[in-house]
Amino acid sequence: MTRYINFIALLFSCYVGIGQSIIASDLIEKSINYHDPDSELFTNDVNMVLIGSTPDREDRITNISFNIEKEEFQMSNQIDGKSIVSDVKRDVTTILLDGTSDYSKEEAGKYRLSVDRVTMMKNYYQYLWLMPMKLNDPGTIIDPEVKLENFFGKESLAIKVTYSEEVGKDTWYFYFSPSSYAMLGYRFYHDESKNDGEYIILEDEAIYKNVRLPKKRTWYTHAEDKILGTDILDSLKF
Hints:
Blueprint: H1 2-21, H2 24-35, H3 40-43, E1 46-54, E2 57-67, E3 72-79, E4 82-89, E5 92-97, H4 105-110, H5 115-129, E6 140-142, E7 147-151, E8 154-163, E9 171-176, E10 183-189, E11 198-208, E12 211-221, E13 227-237
Antiparallel strand pairs: 1-2, 1-13, 2-3, 3-4, 4-5, 6-8, 7-8, 8-9, 9-10, 10-11, 11-12, 12-13
């Protein structure tokens, strides 16, 4: 037992040493090297199949494809038996409902068929599923300090991220494995003093060629620890 305690103490001290000696930008680069060392997700036609579930709704399958260099993005799913396909090619957005763009205002409102909605979903999917690589985007303000923290039972290296005003107003925290530098999860606040916002726990990995992405993301509220939903990366190809 004494040997076990001494081992844990030694391991903890090593982690503390890592947290004190590494700065956030270096930690991010190490994590990027773990998840996408060859920038495959930014130079290829990427296809993802996502399964989303929430406590009060049926599971929804969403197909996502994008090419960052070509500024192309496509999202397709079904709602109420209707096919919705949203396609972005640079500054041109096309939205089809059951194969046609000739739909009523009522249908557009019911199924949220708007350019603003497509832009928001494109940014949402690419921001989260391309982490931690997106932490190198312009407007990202990274606190250089790395802290050793317990993230829901796992020792982690934690960093704080904010954004320039034109990019975003939320405060984010990201958590990484001290041994592999894999992302373990993250959280964000609109107003940290109110304990609002959400935290996201990452589990398992989807591995394709040299890319490793979190396979399962589970979302919770900070205030109530209420589960909001789960996203599963069912397929990744490029």
